[in-house]
């Protein structure tokens, strides 16, 4: 077997893993892709190869290039076994991430992004979830050791350099660079390119969790120019004493005579509909009050999030203005958020708001309170 035959067999195995993940997302979450035609589905799988190859070569391109170096000592078994094991663990990490992406997609209807940066805060939860599902963990370890056994057998296959190895190495180097960038354009391949057709369903089929997670986690945050208080007053045509008011954006609505309607808006933080029985249908019995309200009122089961963070949803509900990518949310505006919510933030936010509007606590334990206006 030549060196390049072994290298491209590794890439073929990697592409097969990504293909299985794309088939898994398409099959498990078919309702999110049911609007696509047969031709569009084929396009999604075909164009997805570009993102899959980029994801593979960005992380495994260097060890594969080291494996292909045109020197005699690079054909030794210890060199190939060491680099092959490194490539194997890269594929294991990417495969595990792809499995998590299939599961995650079912909750938020999108691929993984920079959530990986916060995994350190959820180690105890992840360990508890793994302990609660020993069957899945056993299958994962079984597949890991089974794959490692056959991977070691493949890595020990003797290789030869063959003729014209230098030109082949140069061509392979160019292939790794171009494919890792996603093309020969001025800008490298990015998440937004998956959605160039304008169809979110097709974009989600093209994209993979490794690409979206790595690019979102490693991307440089956008630097925004600071805005002075005087600029805000001038731009938004506020009163000159705007910043001297304790709660500048709050308004008191005087009720009209004869009206007695009472509207209560409940914000529930970080609660997936899976755990609300009236939505998920899993009979967990952990949200009896929400289930009762759902049974007695209207239930909107086609409600879509206006952003990836809770504050973006709160902004949409409170102001009627959805979050716009690239623009700050109400959490970034001191006039809106910090003065309404107080410097404490968090659970103090709603408390301060209620107290300013003469709300009365009717019940509560610990940090949970129920108000009547």
Sequence-ordered SSE layout with sheet pairings:
Blueprint lengths: L2 H26 L9 H30 L9 H32 L14 H10 L1 H22 L9 H17 L18 H7 L2 H10 L10 H7 L41 H4 L7 H9 L13 H10 L14 H8 L6 H9 L3 E6 L2 E5 L1
Task: Give a description of the structure.
The protein is mainly alpha-helical. The chain folds into two domains: 3-218, no CATH class; 229-372, no CATH class. The protein is 54% helix and 3% strand. The protein contains 14 helices and two strands; from the N terminus they run ααααααααααααααββ. It has a two-stranded antiparallel sheet. The chain is elongated and about 95 Å long. The chain starts with a helix and ends with a strand. Mean pLDDT is 78; it is low at 334-351 and 361-373.
Distance between the termini: 78 Å
What low-confidence regions span 5 or more consecutive residues with pLDDT below 50?
334-351, 361-373
Counting DSSP E segments of at least 2 residues, the number of strands comes to: 2
Please, how many helices?
A: 14
Radius of gyration, whole Å: 27 Å
What is the element string, with H for helices and E for strands? HHHHHHHHHHHHHHEE
Outline type: elongated
Helical fraction equals: 40-55%
The number of distinct structural domains comes to: 2
Mean pLDDT across all amino acids? 78
The strands making up the biggest β-sheet line up spatially as 1-2
In percent terms, what proportion of residues is strand?
Answer: under 5%
Oligomeric composition of the shown chains: single chain
């Amino acid at each position: 077997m030549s060196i390049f035959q072994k290298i491209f067999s590794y890439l073929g195995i990697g592409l097969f893993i990504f293909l299985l993940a794309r088939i898994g997302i398409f099959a498990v979450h078919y309702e999110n892709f049911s609007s696509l035609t047969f031709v569009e589905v084929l396009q999604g799988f075909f164009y997805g190869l570009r993102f899959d190859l980029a994801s593979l070569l960005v992380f495994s391109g260097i060890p594969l290039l080291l494996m292909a170096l045109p020197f005699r000592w690079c054909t030794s078994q210890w060199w190939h076994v060491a680099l092959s094991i490194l490539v194997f663990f890269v594929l294991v990490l990417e495969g595990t991430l792809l499995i998590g992406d299939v599961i995650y997609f079912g909750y938020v209807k999108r691929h993984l992004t920079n959530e990986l940066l916060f995994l350190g805060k959820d180690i105890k939860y992840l360990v508890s979830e793994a302990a609660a599902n020993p069957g899945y963990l056993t299958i994962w370890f079984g597949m890991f050791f089974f794959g490692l056994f056959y991977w070691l057998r493949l890595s020990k296959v003797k290789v030869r350099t063959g003729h014209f190895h230098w030109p082949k190495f140069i061509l392979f180097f160019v292939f790794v660079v171009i494919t890792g960038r996603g093309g020969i354009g001025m800008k490298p391949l990015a998440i937004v390119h998956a959605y160039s057709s304008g169809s979110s369903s097709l974009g989600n089929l093209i994209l993979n969790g490794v690409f979206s997670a790595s690019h979102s986690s490693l991307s440089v945050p956008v630097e925004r120019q600071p805005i002075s208080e005087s600029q805000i007053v001038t731009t938004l045509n506020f009163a000159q004493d705007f910043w001297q008011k304790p709660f500048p954006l709050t308004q008191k609505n005087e009720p009209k005579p004869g009206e007695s309607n009472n509207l209560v808006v409940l914000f529930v933080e970080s609660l997936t509909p899976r755990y609300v029985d009236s939505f998920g249908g899993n009979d967990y019995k952990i949200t009896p009050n929400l289930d009762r309200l759902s049974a007695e009122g209207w239930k909107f089961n086609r409600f879509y999030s206006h952003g990836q963070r809770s504050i973006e949803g709160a902004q949409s509900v409170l102001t009627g203005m959805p979050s716009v990518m690239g623009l700050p949310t109400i959490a970034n505006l001191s006039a809106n958020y910090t003065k309404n919510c107080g410097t404490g933030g968090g659970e103090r936010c709603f408390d301060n708001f209620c107290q300013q509007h003469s709300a009365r606590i009717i019940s509560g334990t610990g940090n949970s309170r129920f108000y009547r206006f």
